[in-house]
Amino acid sequence: MSLLAGIRKSELPTVVKNELRDLVFLYTSGGGDESVRISLEQKLNNYKIEPVAPPSQKPVEKLEEKIGKTNTIVWII
């Protein structure tokens, strides 16, 4: 996914981006064909495409951790 993000982020023409994206999908869904990998690597090097690191995510506070932390009770009448 980070490679696709790098392709998306680049300023290449849409036609070139589509070709690179198709090669990525062909390689990943085609069982890792060596000739496709070599072609993809050559094109990525030619266009200087680098994978983009995924954004860091804040840890999600679990509901169980929130329960019992407040002493406020709201009564609805």
Q: What does this 3D model show about the protein?
A:
The chain has helices spanning 2-9, 14-29, 34-46, 63-66. The chain starts with a helix and ends in an 11-residue tail after the last helix. It is 53% helix and 0% strand. It has a domain at 2-54. It has 77 residues and is mostly helical.
Secondary structure elements and pairings:
Layout (H helix, E strand, L loop, with lengths): L1 H8 L4 H16 L4 H13 L16 H4 L11
Helix pairs in contact: 1-2, 2-3
The tally of helices reads: 4
Helix share, percent: 40-55%
What class would the helix/strand composition place it in?
Answer: mainly alpha
Taking pLDDT < 50 over at least 5 consecutive residues as the criterion, the unreliable ranges are none
Strand content: under 5%
Shape by Cα distribution: elongated
Q: What is the H-and-E element order?
A: HHHH
Distance between the termini: 52 Å
Our Rg estimate from Cα atoms comes to 23 Å
What's the story with the biggest beta sheet?
A: none
Keywords:
77 residues; mainly alpha
Q: Can you describe this structure in just a few lines?
A:
This protein is mostly helical and 77 residues long. 53% of the residues lie in helices and 0% in strands.
